[in-house]
User: Fold these one by one.
Assistant:
Number 1:
Amino acid sequence: MQTAPFDYYRPETLSEAVDLLTSVDGARPIAGGHSLLPAMKLRVASPAALVDLGRIPGLSGISRNGGSLKIGALTTHAAVAASDVAKSDCPVLADTASHIGDPQVRNRGTIGGSLAHADPAADYPTLMRAIGATVHVTGAGGSERAITADDFFVDLFTTGLETGELVTAVEVPVMEAGQSGAYMKHRHPASSYAVVGVAAIVTVDGGSCTAAAIGVGGVTGKPERASAAEAALVGQAPTDETIAAAAAAVAGDLANPIGDLYASGEFRVHLASVLTKRALSEAFGESSA
Amino acid sequence: MEVSIKVNGKSYERDIEARTLLVDFIREDLGLTGTNVGCDTTQCGSCTVHMNGAAVKSCTVLAVQADGASIATIESLASDGELHAMQQAFTDKHGLQCGFCTPGMIMTAVKLVESHPDISEDDIRHGLEGNLCRCTGYENVVRAVAEGARLFDPHSPWEMEPAEHKITLREAERRARERSGA
Amino acid sequence: MTTTQRAFGSSVRRLEDARFITGQGRYTDNLTQPGMAHMVVLRSPYAHADITGFDASEALGMPGVVGVFNGQDMADAGFGAMPCAWVVPDSDTKTPAYPPLAIGRVRFVGDAVAIVIAETDAQARDASYAIDVTYDTLDVVVNGREATQDDASLVHDEVANNQCFHWTVSGGEVEAAFENADVVVAETIVNQRLIPTAMEPRAVLARWDSAMGEVTMWSTSQIPHITRFLMSLVTPVPEHKIRVVAPDVGGGFGSKLANYPEENMSVFAAQQVGRPVKWTETRSENFLGTIHGRDHIADVELAAKSDGTVLGLRAQTWANLGAYLSTASTGVPTILHGLMLSGAYNIPAIHEDVYGVFTNTTPVSAYRGAGRPEATFMVERMMDLLANELSMDPVELRRKNLIEPFTDGHEVATGLIYDTGNYEPALDQALKMYGYEEARKQQTAARAKGRLVGIGVTTYAEICGLGPSEVAGAVGFGGGLWESAIVRFHPTGKVQLMVGVSPHGQGEETTFAQIVADQLGVMVEDVDVVHSDTALTPMGWGSYGSRTTPVASGAIMGAIEQLKEKGTKIAAHLLEAAEEDVEFADGLFSVKGSPEQGKTIQDIALAANTAWSMPDGVDPGFEAAAFFDPSNFVFPFGTHIAQVEVDPETGEIDFQRYVAVDDCGPIINPMIVEGQIQGGIAQGAAQALWEGAHYDDQGNLLSGSLMDYAIPKAEFLPKFELGKTETPTDVNPLGVKGIGETGTIASTPTVYNAVMDALAPLGVQQIDMPLTPERVWRAIGDASKGGK
């Protein structure tokens, strides 16, 4: 089943890619293509041109950069999942990557593509919000800027990227002593996307939770922070009761949930609460281990 | 546009439309019809091939994206009339019925056992998430992959080069004997 | 003397595998013809609309386009409507016209409106988007029960209340049974619509030879001979000038058991453009344009005495047939459904009214099990509800009502006579394999801790091996149900077996070779099974209804017996012995008492094919043809047990164990039989847990892709624990029963009842299938609100 015809460009440099995206009418970037190509085959999307980022050097790989990990936009999910540095310095990142889609999808899909597509059912955006990631982008004339995950995800399939801007890397903080994270999702039985995904990053010091960040994806148009739940944890000992209280507070931050044939908005909110509880239990379990 | 793609060890230069999917390039342009198309949303995995040594769904790769890449399809697994260990395992364990999903299933399985030296049933079931079969209920597919893994040496040097990426049953058994010290 | 293992009963590796595991399968879409053009079908985006305008001028000007045609073009070329091949008598069945391409009105989303022929598939697809069709939309009905109401819009103007038929089965004194009952349980049972989803989408390649006036059509079909027959009625080409070939077919499950519009369109297109034409369905098209299955809504009541003795069952069922009648559709919710409402039990009185209903949805026909899963689900669900009502163990209730062992036929209230059966040993074996008593104890302990563990048990009997042709005629099937076989020895002793059935993945290229090898003492590898080509095989009625082996084996055995007889004559002649002194065993004809003096069957094949010295009155050649019409259907049976645990927080179901003991008589190839059962269990469990087609009220299929419609993945399923008993049938020479559908028939209620058993402490009695986490979670929530 073929896409509609399109013009194809394969720039060798980032600036060439940005130039093409700003100058060619209807051009869209393609990396792994695992969100875009299925939509194009069904002709839900018919861009006039594709700018293939696949040959641009320097956009792939994971490196430790002070207190953070920098992941090139073209790094595949499989590469993140298998990365030794990710596994040791930010295990929740590698773990999240290992649960995206299926093995073949992970071999092609890229972190930059996933973030730029901003599908509410995707896994990475949820983690990025919880972990406090920074998205690095390059735009016209080589202008670079860094966008926090909080600002990057705007709505359903909508990001803070300006026309012509490309994601080049994403930076996530490494897990400090006493800090740990967990990602849990309710997987759609057909698509394998997250119906609801919850990422929890917690810090425990002296038997007390000193910081907590919870990201919830799949419930609204963009990954949300469960601020009330986070607030309910800080300063508390991570007991089952505290965790349950925090999980119960998640719903308050999830107004206007989306629903579909498989899961209503109400059920998604409920799942968010249950998965928050489970993700917190796992994260606190890791942090005390 | 012009592409040069190495498929099963042989380079092919072709002038193709940009929208040509890798699977259509393989099936239509090269006439290698062992790779099947079972869906249009990247779910079923019937079209799985190895691209630069990784299992990918060739229905969701543009042929132009594979320009310069090395592709291995199901047709490359057997050599000199001898089946690859995983092929042998699929027939020995009745891991197929209608056979339509089988090429993709085998191509995924080959990579799966390579990356899991001590593979468990759970690893196999999860590792096949991207491959749908409607006939078998997967029971015998799982048995076949486990059997293929038993015959397989995951640490052998040929895993780097897709064109050379083959292991015959005889070779697999020889290695298994060596490993067991027999 | 050495003991050789018989080919019959051995897990012989499949002969067909070699081509599949090496990527050499000959699926229809893999085939090409010189000069071949490609066809794409433009489908209606509306569920119900009048076509008020059609303009293909832009499409015709696009690159590579060879032609664009619509329904009127096809009608003008002499192509008619596609007949339903099964019109059940005494049911007042309406058969509105089903033209391959819609004429004037579309009746479901996906109804074919036009075809584009172009040099490439991509060009044809591009052009299809450029055809300008204007529609005037009409009101839509999608629900089979609601469609019969007086204010519902009509799918076909001439069919009042959208009622295609009203069929009744009745046996015993039903009213009296309910009057005399101590207890009656009632439930509305929905067997939701399913989408077969064979992994190979459908495809057709048609070649028109104008010089000879002949069509050759390769198609993804389970029924090449029936398709040829039907196409001779639809196309202007007579039957003897149509050749239908089903090369390797990538699964069917009933979805390739029809003469489809695209088959007729491809022939039409090939004639129009004078070139071979190929069409290949996309998966998205498959969801819309290939038949669906199930979709029954039934009000069911079961009457019993307080000791659990079942007295009667009564039901009203609305069967959604979709917008048009597919080839076999009306037989599914009637003959294959209502007649099986006794299940494995003595139910002295049964009455069912079945209403076949047209709606603005994809046509519904036979999907694996076809009618029997719906019936079995109804019976088994009611049995569990009765057990709950009586606080009886569901196994005890079933055992009490099981039909006693029988070897000479057992008549049930619906009028069917089951062939042979011995149900309790299968039940006992399954209980033992599962460890039922211990599991119930563990369940009690788990429940005490608030865990929702459930066990489901099904004892089933099903009807298959379709079937006696006389019965086929009596129930309105428009053809026979006998089978044919030709066993041909070549001079070198190699054998070809030509059969009229059409296996499509099940493995009969191997099992049939095993029968020949076992009977005639040749190597399995020396038998080539030829099937699915009307030019090469004798007339036969195809592969469905688990009939391939039970019916075709009778024909194969008939041919084998003829060859044994002829071989004996020739051997006696060559050995200069009296015919009655020659015996045949393990491929050797020898004189009794002196086995060293013998002729192998290969010797005989050479002698007969050269015919240098034949006995008087014996013709040359060593081949035999036989036909076989069974005296009855066959009725496999068994017991299945499932164990699940429900997550009370999320409604997710952990599918933990599955035990199946099936009886299909003597087993030709255990490995293949197990594979059939395993695949069937997965499909049936999927109806309970994951699969369901869903339309919105405008007739849009919301579950229209593999992104939405969840067929099982490897990680969803537990290991299946299989056992068997062997009770031969007396309706065919080998005693074999069908096994292709038992897994699907038994597993849906088994898994469903297990989940309901898990939820029983909460008071949950009914949840619509599939049992998605949200539905289960809501049921748990509603039950707790109800205060139970």
Note: The first strand of chain C starts at residue 37 and ends at 43.
Number 2:
Amino acid sequence: MYSSFSKAGLAVTFSPTGKMLLSEAARLQALFGFKLYLLHVGEKDEVTRQRLEHLVEENIFPKEVEIVWLEGEPAKAIVKKSKELELDLLIIGALEKEKGLKNIMGSVARNIMRNCHCPVLIFTKPESERFGFNNIVVSVCYDGKGEEAARVAIEIARHDHPADFTFIKEINVPGLPSVVFDSGSTYETGSMKKELIGLEKQKIKFFGLELGLQEDEFQNEVLYGVEGWECLNYASETNADLLVVTMGERKLSFIDRIFAHDLEFLFERIPTNTLLYK
Amino acid sequence: MSHNEIVIFLVAISIMLFFARFLGEVFSKLKQPAIIGEIIAGILLGPTVFGNLMPELQGTLFPQSGNVSLVMNGIVQLAVIMLLIVSGLEVNLALIAKQGKTAVYTSTLGMVIPFVTGFIPFYFFSDAFGAHDGDNLIFALFMGTALSISALPVIARTLMDMNLLKSEIGVIIIASAIVNDLFGWIFFSIIIGMISSGGSANYLTQIGGIFLFLAVLFFIGKPVIDRLVPRIQKNYSYPGSILSFIFIAGITAAAITEAAGIHAIFGAFMIGVVVGDSSHLKEETREIIHQFVTNIFAPLFFISIGLKVDFVASFNPLLVSIVLVLAIAGKVIGSGLGARLGGMSHPEAMTIGFGMNSRGAMEIILGILALQAGIINEEVFVALVVMALVTSLVSAPMMSIFLARIKKFENLSQIIDPGLIIFTAQAEKTAIIKELVGAVSAQAGVSSGKMYQEVMQREAAFAPVIIPGLALPHAKLDVKRPWIAISVNPKGYIYSEETVEPVYLTILLISPKDKPELHLNLLAGIVGAVGEEDAISRLTETTDKAAIAAHFKDRT
């Protein structure tokens, strides 16, 4: 059977969240059938080994699980090992928001999200007994990567049967409010927005159909506003439990953190469990 | 103010507002920037026309000194600050940060080259152009800045009228114009600072002050404003409270920068930038602010220019021509070259060059401030105003010329070819698709067998009858550009077992594999054009292929 992921890693800790993450990983392993590597940063001693093994035994893993010991700065070590192991998915836990300077300088989770070579599934709200995602929101990107991300979402949705499965697209016309400045009317800008939203709705519909979905299998929503920001608000407002977003080719720099746009908003605030596809 | 003075002041304001708005609307109706009408209204009411015909009445209504003039100046000063807050709101820093190298090259060269073309001649020949003695450097720096600035509102309007606002070219122009505005105002503030500091030893302190203000604003002010904006919008009366907040912040910052010797406009502009950058600021709020400032303060400001300056007496044809030539050459060559280096084709680069060329309102604000500060005289000011108006006027027609030469095959009007429209009596899906494939395959350079196979494979994946009467078979193949062929069967036929209603139009779309979004755009565009009321009956009743093609052309 085709599966999007064959090798996945899980950054494991001994916190209560860490335990729940293992449970989530076990469920996903049943879905995708990947080999799971437990990545632990810390000294390899007998006590820790036993604790880790005990954690593994608490869950039912349908496929192979291997413990990998790492040393050094956690984010760097995990990113490096993910590449060496040629993982195609990395699962981590993260806080919804980082405070103050950490937000600018980056926490472990944020650094992994930025620098990992493969898709990262970030759990901000892990559960120990999840039966499936119930509200999946996919922020649509029309390029090849975006299509792959949507295919993964469809794979999850076909398994989990969420109550809501929504494709959303954010659109924005730079300079549109300025038109009002030079003798334009809000009626004019309003009708332009309406027209663009209509066109975009058609595009999302075709996007879904092209990926083999039936019309009644997904909803579509077009959000006019700040790109990268509106999808986060939508995910929060609709209580989505999985958000799927695609990361573009361009590496974001420090400048992007100050003048935040697109994914930078996500790094500032992760509204829910998020699959960052890249 | 005495009772009489109050009456004169109120009458003057209402006359100014009436004439400015009236002529502004007239120019809008003529599809020209409203600001041209507003300035002409000032010329009519000012010393140039009204003052010449009825000097006494003009002098009573619009006095150049005394209490009425003082209050009027106060209002105009406030109007400039408001205009700068609004201009700042439109500086979308994220748009700049996320634009690729094309916007970076376009904005950089679109600023540097006009700056140089402005600076060099005015530095070496400033006496001939009317600079004040000893002010050569400041005058030349100002002229460089004045020639390198762009006017976002006029540009946005032109792009919208030309249906380019959402296009790649449109976004590059907007992003580059924003960069030019931002740096233009920073440069101008430095120049003003140089004057008020009065000596070269103090230049560095002034520049240091500007950067200190920027640092405090971005690292402390911005996070605070970002937290305040959503709270104000949520917890207090909307939109009243957020409007008040923006203007209070803008005017306070203006006061701070003025006190620091930079210039009030700089603080106002930068507050606009920071507030506008907040993702929490509602789009609706922006439009309300625009409406408020555009319809009340902007007309008062632009009409006041004509009231102060005699355009006929200060019109120096040689100077006007020189400024005009330098401005157009510098901007079009600079921005065009930047766009070309950024990877755009020659006609695209020229379209961008002329798109960036509009100076409009920004130039005039810059000019009047320079006139007030004594950097330039009235002759130079008039030349700048004429240049601002002419560049705004020629922008759209010049862009159209080069736009027509761009062949990118990205919209239906460029792709649909009457030669690929077939009237058929066939009433069977596979036969019709074969006909369409036969028409397209040779031109697209793909074998008809392969194309047919790909199309039929898609057919199996999902039903292509999206709206009643239209079937839309399609495929993505290794082709260089998209192809569309249309088959018309006026009697209709049953497309497949699942479809009940007959299909009259079968449109085959073949798109390049590497452009997935273009494929979706075209699918959505076709559905939009055919989905209009009566479109199917209109398209099937005619036998004129050109008319069918025109139906799609009209809508893209």
Note: The mean pLDDT of chain A is 85.
Number 3:
Amino acid sequence: MRIFLILLVLFGSLHTVAQEVPIEGQKRIHFPHPMDTSWRISLGFTATTIPIDIAEEVHFRVPAGDIHAVKRISDKWYLDGRINFQIIQNLITLGPRWSTKINDRISVALGSDVGYWFGFINQQNIKTSGSGWQNYPNISFGYRFNKAILLTVKAESIMNFGIKSYAGEMQVTNDYRLFSGSAYSILLEQPFVGKKSMTLGFRAMYTDYFWQTWTLFESYDRNLFFPQLIVGLIL
Amino acid sequence: MKQLITIAYILLIVTSCRREFVAPVPNTDWDLFNSPTAVRLTRLTMNKMEGIYSFGAGADVFGDSTALKWSYTVSGNDTSYKLSMFCEKQAAYFILEGKRLDTSILLNGYWRKLVNTETGRVRLTINQVNGSNYLISPSPLNSNNKFAVTGTFSYGDAVPDRPVNIQYNRSLNRTTPFQIIAHRGGGRTADILPASENSIEILKLAPQLGSTGVEIDVRLTKDGIPILYHDARLNERLVQKSGLLGPIENYSYAQLNTIVRLKNGERIPTLRDALITIVVNTPLNLVWLDIKYHGSLQTVAALQAEFQQKANNMGRTLEIMIGIPDEEVQKNFLALPNSASIPSINELSPEKVIQTNSKVWAPRWTLGLQNEEVAAQQAQGRRAYVWTLDIPENIQQFILEGRFDGILSNYPSVVAYYHYAKK
């Protein structure tokens, strides 16, 4: 959390060198203002802290590669795809996004991303595997500052379908949690080095199931807090 | 830009607050229950109440059926009995006290679901119409004696007003000896029980949660005192903020006892204090000492022998066994004089079990049912316990399809339900 605050301050201080540019010229991927290009791709990572309730003494932060792509279909309709990868466990989401601008500064988007996660790991000589379907209905509000800073605030519902995990031949989990919880994100996007832009975001997830913890076979039915740092380079 | 930073900070503060989960034990005052004419139940009445019941009202919250079983704790000359109801749904359980008022039996207490934070009050009655006379009479029950429990429950501290009733179906399964072993003395701190894991208080609570035995974690302090503590370090998961941090073996027992408190305010207990509590205050009949340090086991083995003797002298049925979780502990165990005669639980392979002459083989549950391997151990006169099973479907599977002699779980109430309800 402290690192995020430092990054936020450093990131914010970049405004001294940022040039004011019209929205049409600004690269963005989370910001809900309608896009003017057919594709936008971002490469980065997420880092999620696993709560002590389930991680116990190994209070760790799990980094994952993050590839995010948005394809423009029409003026207001987009296809939003994302891959979160750690090799041994991965999440792929894909869904429609409808974006519109309210005025020159404010824009809004609605979306629903369907996800599939899967993982394989050899734990103490036992082959364990897991997979599951998810859905993230979401709404985003964007506010464009006058110094090329794009602020997106996003709220998501987290739905988990068909969580399945196996230890060897034995099925460990076969679960279905329609309303697992919700997530709230603050995302900042602005020009970075070269012609790239950068995303720095924080996502607060309150959920009773987070896919990256499938190997822990946890039994809670409580909406635990999973803070997630999001960093991306918009190409 | 100041605006931006301010907004971002506000949003960050709002969204980054970690929610603290609490599940306080509700206030269980009930004037009728506390009336001076209400008297304690007899042992016979209590025994007759034990059994498997089906829910009518309340099934949507607690599941279709429940196992009722009494347990006790001893405090000085006083023995306090509690009736536990182990339910099918979401690791729900009830902890109740019982009294007789004229011809009615009153049950008063609280319920809790371990997988979340739901809890509340409950007031139950068995009156004459519902068969209290069968339970109060000195005659044994027969198959024609039908009785039911009716009452109300609530959420939190609210006065109970939601109907709940259960109907007696059959007696508890007691066909084979089976150990219901509570992890960390009774349950994890993260499950927000009224006592911290590995505390004296959780040991006293363990029988009410369904345990017949407990697994406790043993570490050594800097001055060589065996204590109960799971993690390698003092951390926010297990202890209140005290200014002490780092490996627990860096501190003397006096330092820990003076400065450090567990999450619910308890002191970190010594193994000696824990064993006194188990032997004197509880009906627990198994102690699994999970050795969490690498070093000489002599102090622990001496305590084991001392308290095993005390329990024997008191006529208590109790086994205290040293757990062997890894090769290093096995090496230290084998270095003990007469190690082959020291009761132990070996978590390693069946071959290692023979090397240490352990009474119990304890494989991890993810290895599966292993019915053949378990049978082989039993054929050698040993037992097999499986750890650490928490998912109700898996617990049910291991009880119905497996051959293990015991299950270690963070949810002993779930193990108790499936074990006692087994047909």
Note: Residues 13-18 of chain A have pLDDT under 50 and may be disordered.
Number 4:
Amino acid sequence: MRRLSAAREDRGFSAIWTAITAFFVLGVAALAVDVSGFYREATFEQSAADMTCLAGVRDLPQSPSNALDHAVAIARQNWSDLAAVPATIDLPAKTATLDNGAGNVVTIVAGYGGEPTKMSVTVSQRAATQFGNVLGVASAQITQEAYCKVQGLKLGDLPFGAIPGGGFDGELQTGSLCANGNCRPLELPREDGTGASVWFIRNVAIGGQAQLLPVKAAVPPASLTTCVPFSGPCTIVNQDQGVSTGQLSDGIARGNGAAGVSGRFENPTTTSVFSSLGGRILDGDAPEEILDPDYPMFSGVTGAPLGGLGQPPGWDTDLHGLWPPADLDSNYYYNGTIAKCDSPRLGRIPIIAQVDWGPGQPLNLPGGNSDPVKVVGFYLVALFDPNESSDFLNPSDSLKNLSGKVLWLGPDASCSGTGGQVKPYQPGDVKVIRLVDQNA
Amino acid sequence: MKSEGSNRPGRFFARDRGAALMEAALVMPLMLMLTVGVWTTARAWNVHSTLDHAAREASRYGATEVPWGGPSAAKVRAVADQELQASAIVPADVATVCIAQGSAPCGLGAIPGVDQVAVQLSWDNYQMDFIFFSINVDLKASAVSRWEG
């Protein structure tokens, strides 16, 4: 009898036990939903903070005011609850604050940590809980931070105008776009070891500052400041495609693998060569290799390291780093097509800088360079034949007899109208912006 | 009066046999719904988070798309698709609400002196299954970057 009674007493035990455990299971489930919601919120906050930071930092260090204004504007675009919130901007302190009064606050600091080129964005958002109310927790405060930095161009940042592996369909495309006067040019060396590539290397060596020149004639004109537009459609008479990669310390050029040997841009199966001075650039033993009377900016600049070059006038250490720029072991690469047109003309080459931000292209380049890249500006390049302009009309003429000069025009490279002036390079025209760690 | 044999353990369990099963049958659907509900809710958060991330990556890519041309929007979308695929989301499920560049793209307010790149994605009628019923929600993501051209 007692057992039967006990059995009766046991009936419903599973249901009671389930009810008890369900209380905890439900609680854990509710917690999981709320926490996953917090993670989602945190992801969004981080993304928006990153974009806010990157939008503002490019105005540094010249204009903290603009940097704050633009960061605030992009923050408002990304956080709908802050769209109509007035910003509190403290210019002396270089800070801006957006506060909706409901726990959502964005704080932007230009010149974070005393560094004029650095910005921070701190986001503190109140995220409502879905089930936390049961426990009296209606919301949680989520804080995310973004730090970013702007740098000028420095050695290694722009070794080549490069076309990403996925193709760059700007004005460098072949075909109908050539009618615009851009036929994917690239400077090539002269056979005698001089030429535009040497100057190009100098541009690399000094971080991009160079004299400007547009060229249409067979030889560079005396005046290097007049814009000479090229007219008429471009007919491609020859083209070459390939990939090149290496280290600047190699002198950029790799004459089919041997430093110091003149060569040319070859097919993908051959080590490419851009320079005729492989192994000699930047070695500092022959300043005359780098100094050239055609470059007034450099004349009279002697002494100091890095090939005899001193810090050029106007060099902004905040933007460009200390002179000389560091690291000769930076990788360079080129992946694209060179097209030779039937007439000299200008072209824009995208400048690729290595950055930490993806999506990265090109990938899996020879030499193992798989760093993400981005376009940070353009070279404007004029192609010409140093010996005979009519060579342009000769389809069988080797590409290596082509030459050109890199015109540094900054991110808005352009040359419009006969007699117009090309835009001179100004410190800060081209910048590399990137997200960084707090202590970077 | 019960026989002696009725007090044997076998008889006892025979009488209760099926009780636990019945109770489990009552409780299991609830537990199953709960379990699946947690999973489907978490997955919805994950999908929404992925949409945010994809929009952001695409927007940042678009910011460096200089010059902005005819194929640019498609390239930006392709970047978003890569991010979606990385999280096992079929890109075709996610619609492009707007991908544009300009002073006031996608109906956004203009920022003086600044061009913007806006990416807006949406997964309309995303279905959250709870076994016995389902809920359709619209997952939307938007990101705005400063164009660097």
Note: Confidence is low (pLDDT under 50) at residues 153-315, 319-430 of chain A.
